[in-house]
Every structure is written in structure tokens, then in C-alpha cells.
Amino acid sequence: MDLNITGNCNLRCSYCSHFTSGSDQGDDISTEEWLRFMKELNDCAVFDVCLSGGEPLYRKDFREIVEGIVKNHMRFSVLSNGTLITDELVKFLKSTGRCGSFQVSIDGPGPEAHDICRGEGTFAQTLNGLKILLKNKMPATVRVTIHKHNLYTLDEIAALLLNEVGLPSFSTNSASHMGLCRQNEADVQLNVEEYTYAMAKLLELSKKYNNRIGAQAGPLSSVKHWMEMEDLIEKGIESRPGCGYLTSCGGVFSKMAVDPDGTMVPCSQLSHIRLGRINKDSLRDVWQDHPELKRLRDRRNIPLDEFDYCKGCEYIPYCRGGCPALAYTLTGDENKPSPDICYKRFLEMGGSLPEQKSLRVR
Amino acid sequence: MWLYEEEDSLDTGDRYKCRAKWEAAQAEKTGCVPILKEEGDLMETIPFANPEIVYREDFDDWAVLFDPDTAETYGLDEVGSFIWKKIDGKTPSENILNSLFEEFDNVPENAPEHLEKFLNGLEENGLMGYKKK
After folding, report:
1. What is the pLDDT of residues B92-131, one digit of tens each?
2. What is the ipTM of this complex?
3. Helix-helix angle A31-43:A62-71, to 10 degrees
4. Is A74 within 8 Å of B69 when comparing Cβ atoms?
5. CB-based contact (8 Å) between A94 and chain B?
6. Domains annotated on chain B, with CATH
7. Which regions of A147-283 does DSSP assign to beta strands (E)?
8. What is the pTM of this model?
9. Hey, of A41, A75, A98, A99, which one would you mutate to test binding to chain B, going by the most B CBs within 10 A of its CB?
């Protein structure tokens, strides 16, 4: 379960996907409500929860919530901006033995590229937080969100995190179309040329650092995905398993989320689909029988060639349609392909892949 | 392998047995006093589950055990799931063995060996312990 335990945060990052989104409504629920829900999670044999927000460490009862998780036989991970980490808190988290990972966000090799979107002084605070995690041998991870202001510092970011700090790896994404990013789009979001540059640079760095840079979305994920498409076409492979339909989202088969006000939702980015309220509606019943979840799970039966823009696209047999949340944000309908991951659209807008091995005529 | 004497009954919820592989801090907390278990005296034991382990039933009577302390998961087939549900700290190993013959067809004659091997495997992975009957 993804538990957004608070809608509050000490920062206002200019590309934050939470603020002004569907999850940014209502008040935080009480400690007692979360603890009561932990019991239900245990009854449903949930193994693992991910604590986020807002900023999860912003909650004064963060330790109590973690104790509730531990008491109910679960593990947890944390997604944090890293600025509120203290040695005492980390020692406590370490003592539970249950923390699978603690992710912080670092967007630059120094304050200039990081603070511009996250706030003055945040780079130093976050780096200090990361050092505290590593000093206490916590499983620390870093997410780098790529935007207009740090795009040309990727070499230095990789050197900082992988050489100087010595992380085994870090993950990347780009500022998406959600939350505050929508109103700050011109200032933060990568255009096609910038996205093309980011793809090439991340691919180069990924090779340089022996695949220690990862991505589940964003430029590095896109370039790998699209290069594989071209590769399959070149090899004459007619299709890729599971493609040709809206099959990209496996989340609805493995997890759910809870918003800060206690609303159960399929995913933190699909907060407009309200499935129920914790401690009022049965988690088991919602998970097994809610018609909206069933509808989202049936998404994978929708063929891509049903959509006007996709009809006749040569990449259909290799495409899964992208994230339903982004599809909803950009088109108003989660049961459509997301323009964000569309290779055809990327090419039409002037984008190109790095290291093209062939001059395949399209 | 080790048997452990408990200082209080399991029903108190305050103390339970643990095995050598679990952290020393846990052993101290629960007041474990290890006793060496002799080979072949399975029928003199009562198995009990590590209370931290999460049991999740899956399809067709299969199940998964999850250890939140190690993040390890273990798959149980239909028979394993049946046995696990009887590891309650009260049912002797002998009774568990007998219930296999009642529940399933074609139970092999060397079922006691199979059962001991299965329970020992659970014990070695920190999923359960033994106490004296």
C-alpha cells in the first residue's frame, strides 16, 4: 500500500505532483485512524507500505505510525524530500529493522540547480540528510528529477552521487505534467529538444557507470523503450508480448493507495477515483470487488488501434499505452493511451533517438 | 537444532520462543533458554509459529509466508499450508502428522520423515520453533 500520510510539506517544489492535484484536499487524518488501519492491513496480510505525502516526516506522529507498521508485521519504505532527517529519527528507523528503503530527492550537483525548484538551502539540508542515512547504514536511495534547470548538470550529478557519495545507484524521472508542474510547465518541463538531449545524456551516463542509473519513467526509460521498439522492427519481430493494448499499468493488480484524508484510491496519481474510506469501507471488499478497480484492471483489454491517433501506427505491436494517470491528466480519460510516452508523437514533434543504428525509413 | 523452554505460556502474549538464528536482542527480550533437541524426537515436540510471520492465502489452497524482518517470502503448497495452519503452539507434531492422514489421500508411509524435514526447514528459516510436549 502507498500511504500518503500527510498533505503537508515544508517545501513547495515547483514541479510537485501532489500540490493542486486530486490528493491535495481535505485534512490529514489522526494518528488513531492510521493505527487502526494498520491493523486492517495486517488482517489482509499486506506485507509492505510506502510512506509519502506531502512530506511524511512533517507529521509529528511519524514515529508512532512507523511503530504501528512494525507492530502489525509489515515492512516500510519512505519517500522524502530529505530536509527533515535527523540522526535520532534515523537511529529509530534503523532499530525497527523493517525499513526497506529511504528515498530522498536531489536535483543537482550543488545548490544552484537543486534549490531553484526546491527552495533556498534545500540542497545542503538534503545532502546532510543523505549523509545521516548513509552514516547509519540505512538503505538510502536518491531520485533525480530532471527539469530545465538541471538538464545540463547531469554529468556532475552522476559524479556526485555515484563517485563522491558512493551510492550503488540512483533513479531518474523528469518533471511530469501533474500537480504544480502544470502551472509551472514553461519554467520546468523539458521540451522535445531538451528531452532528446536528456535521453542521449542519460544513456551515455548509464553506460559509463555500468547501469547504476535507473528509471521507471522519464527520459532514460523512454529511450530504452523506444530503442527497443526500433530494434524489434529492424529484426522483423512482429510484436512484443503484452503489447498492442493498454497494458502498461500493473499497479492495479498489486497495490492501492490512501490519500492524506483517508480516501482509498487506486494510485496516488488517480485521486479522482475514490474507492472508499479507510476504517469505514472494507479494504478487502474494495480490493476484490470495487467496480472502478475492475474497470481499471480491464483496461488491458482495450486495443490501441481503437484510438484515432493510434490507428495505423507501426509501433502499436510494441506499445502498451503508458501511464493511465498521465493519460487522465493530459486527455481527461485514463482509458486512453498517454501522449507522454507516445513514440510516434515524439518523432512528429521533432524528437530523435540517440545512437540510431540504422537509417530505417519511416 | 535447538528447543527452547519458555518462561511464560504463549497465551500471555508476552514471551515466546525463538531460534538461535534470530537476533540476540530478541532472545534476551523473550527469555529464551535453549535446549538441545535430539534427532528423531519430533513426536515429543509442539511446533509454534514465529508470531511476526505473515501468512497470506493464495489460489488453490497455496499460500505465501512473509518474514517482515528479513523481507523473505516462502511459498507453501496445499499440504504445507495445511500444516502451517496447525502450527499454533498447542497442537503436537504427532497430532499434525495424524491429521495429514485424515485430510489427504495417498499419504506416503514415510510421512513422518517428510513432516520432520518440512518443520525443520521452517525452523531453520526462522519461521517457527519447537517446544517440548
Report:
1. 999 999 999 999 999 999 999 999 999 989 988 989 988 8
2. 0.88
3. 20
4. no
5. no
6. 3-132 (3.90.930.60)
7. 170-174, 213-215, 257-258, 263-265, 276-277
8. 0.89
9. A75
